[in-house]
Amino acid sequence: MKNKKMLAMLVGLSMVAPIAHAGVSITLAHGSPAKHVITKEFVEPWKQCVEKAAGSDVSFKYFPSGQLAKIKELLSAMDKGVADVTPVPVGYSSDKLPLNGVSMLPGLGGSSEAIVSAYWKSLSNDLLAKEFAANGIVPISVMAFPPYQIVSTSKKIKTPEQFGGKVIRSAGGAMDLIIKSLGGSPATISIGDTYVALQRGTADATISALASVDGYKLQELAKSISTNGSFGTFVNVLAVRQAKWNEMDSGLKKIFKDCGSKIQLQSARNLDNAGSDLAKKFAGAGVEMFQFSPDQLKEMSSKLGAVHQDWTDRLNDRGLKADDVLKAYKASF
């Protein structure tokens, strides 16, 4: 009798009590500071877009600012299953994504929007896509900075000749080749450690986007910053761990990709538009903002042209089809 009463009570409760909706739980991590452009223009807008579109079908466990993994550890965090979604820094992952380093070569694309558009098209190339698949991740959005500039501290670098003998902070990969081609010595230092490296004199300068200069307060140390150089760029690819992707239904996958497309275009345009404002901000703080002359740009372009050949030669020697990738990438602009 008691059992029947208990059963009736449970049936009654089941008819009035709401059933909890178990949405897909996503662990989202990145290594950038809270106010950095990667956070504010890329990761968080994408997250907000997904939350708005998916509602209770998704919930995020959010670990910003290196709480779960530092910038260089993000790809590894997905490989280990610690994170489900991260912005993978291509420059710091050249050992795992060597051919994708084509996106960082100098002289290709004069704006963030142009670079993002070309690289996203190029990700349909089997050779690039296979590198992501081999690492068990699915790319859903791209962020690329406008062409990098030279940021120097105590020792100004305002002419091609002044690159010679300078230790210049690099993100590795193609950026090392860029610095060497101009006569400098690259020092691979993460962006998070750049301020201290410049402050201590470990590096004389860095090649960076104006947005990252601001994000890491490098203008506090800078004496001069160029505004019309074309020293490559840095690309982050927002990617989903393949195993988590396989758990998601087609509707949620579409939301992830649609938000990725929306945010990559939005962030690119915002980065391009912010350039002049940042230059004014830095100048107001006492930094000398300068332009290379047409003759200097021509001289540096000639030297940087060798970077493309060096990059392809190195990867071709490893059995990778870098020539094909570079040709296809150039054609995508």
Q: Would you kindly provide a written description of the structure presented here, covering whatever features stand out?
A:
The radius of gyration is 23 Å and the shape is globular. The longest helix is centred in the C-terminal third of the chain and has 35 residues, at 250-284. Residues 1-21 have low confidence and may be disordered. It has two domains: 20-87 and 116-143 and 238-273, 3-Layer(aba) Sandwich (D-Maltodextrin-Binding Protein, domain 2), CATH 3.40.190; 149-232 and 277-331, Bacterial extracellular solute-binding protein, family 7 (D-Maltodextrin-Binding Protein, domain 2), CATH 3.40.190. It is an alpha/beta fold. The N and C termini lie far apart (78 Å). The chain has twelve helices and eleven strands. The strands form three sheets. Strands 7-6-8-5-9-11 form a six-stranded mixed beta sheet, sandwiched between helices. Strands 3-10-4 form a three-stranded antiparallel beta sheet, with helices on both faces. Helix 2 runs antiparallel to helix 10. Strand 1, helix 2 (37-54) and strand 2 (58-63) form a beta-alpha-beta unit.
